[in-house]
């Protein structure tokens, strides 16, 4: 393939930025056009190397123009192919949750649409599940083993998104902390990753 080296570099770039927002522009790896970048990313998605999650917006145009978050189909691929950086358990956990959400969508929840949420104040929620016209669940992922290890922005963003979207199903997936708390007038469920993975959803 004429551009095999560039395609490999793009693969490494995406895998090194997993669980992160990415804007596809012509400056990525010095490629000539936004169309080229977009087409190559589509090729990698079709090859089941990565997949994308769009930012939630009721306006389709805003969804299309906003940065997307990219995830690997397997955490093992990240370790094998991405550039080695300081280990980031939060991002690896988030990637694993993304993979599981799409698995559940494929097998038992075909009506799901999966997004991330981010408002103008930069309050971000890792995953937003939409069923029809309703936002049915908001999910944060954090590497925490106790409540005091969870950054306040994690549940504050959940609460703000809940107020905006009218969603009452709020969850924070942790490393091994489990509880249910009322915060800011909202009930938030904290569930360990392992338990969430083995619980039908």
Automatic annotation (TrEMBL):
InterPro entries: DUF4143. Residues 4-134 form the DUF4143 domain. The lineage of its organism: Archaea, Candidatus Marsarchaeota, Candidatus Marsarchaeota group 2. Pfam families: DUF4143. It comes from Candidatus Marsarchaeota G2 archaeon BE_D. This is DUF4143 domain-containing protein. It comes from the Archaea.
